[in-house]
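Today's session is about reading a structure prediction critically. Students often jump straight to the picture, but the first step is always the sequence itself: look for stretches that repeat, for charged clusters, for runs of hydrophobic residues. Only then move on to the predicted structure, which in these notes is written as discrete structure tokens rather than atom positions. Here is the chain we will use throughout the hour.
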Amino acid sequence: APPADVSEGALQGYRIARIYLDRGDTTRARAELLPVMKMAPSWPAAHDLKAAIALREGDEAAAVLAWETSLALDPDQPQVKLVLAELAQRGGDPERAARLFTEAAAEGAPRAHYRLAVIAFEEHRLFAARQQLDVFFAAVTGGLDYAPAQGLRRIVDRRILLLQGGVGGGIGFLMVSLVGSLLWRRGGRPLAA
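Below is the predicted structure for this chain, in token form.
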């Protein structure tokens, strides 16, 4: 819902701009949004729409600027943080991406948990990846990320099992080696109590 200070004219112009964007006509969407931005310059949704138009036109820098303006007006927008995180990751800024994914996850964006799981997996932090995936699956039952998240969970679980088996096997090997070495040194004589 728009804030009380957004006029009916601005709301109508916003709706028309959104329709044009949905139809793929970014030129008309931008033209319809221009007066909205003048009538309601502090309306975050208008800045979000401006960003979506810029992104559709391929201008990531303008999109990021518009979304950052929107966040400055209303910092409680986990979906905007999620999009900015994905753009930061794609743009080669993993620290900013991780920070924004973390904020979006804390504010209730389930997809952010999946993206954090991917980052943790890539950094070989398997237990952190598993934890993020658990939160993701507790929050969603489908969607675009669901099947890839299931695949990632299978890989993470397999690697955790291998890691646990490797550690257990390593400890077992060490114990057998230690006992064997001790017996060999004692010449096969039984150990004294």
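Discussion point for the tutorial: The mean pLDDT is 89.
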